[in-house]
Amino acid sequence: MDTTQLQPANLLGLIAGVSHGRLSFTSHALPAVAVVRHVVTGGGLLMRSGPNAELAAAARAEQVVAFEADDVRGDAGFGWWVTALGRLRHVDHELPGMLVLTMDVTWMNGYVLPAEDLRYRMTS
User: Which among 39, 49, 68, 106 is least buried, having the fewest CB atoms inside 10 angstroms?
Assistant: First the structure.
């Protein structure tokens, strides 16, 4: 895959094609990772995880976090992975422009990486 031609919308399309990703953040000055369910919306990456006080604290501080999703197969590691960086924010209501069409799930009380804040890196 020629990654030089991919725009942010294409990268979000790859992320949208998988149901789980990993959110990296800091907790008590140490690295932490949480597996999160996510959907891609017009407003960015909307995520849910189980009860996680450390993740809630990261959102309150609007930490810069890394979200990673991938589709890597086999021992040779063929596939792709995308990392998105942005400031984590807690949401307890629907955000303007967020249309969740991919799952029959309520996404309130989740976390968002707003689209305008995201920076991407892709490897294949």
Answer: 106
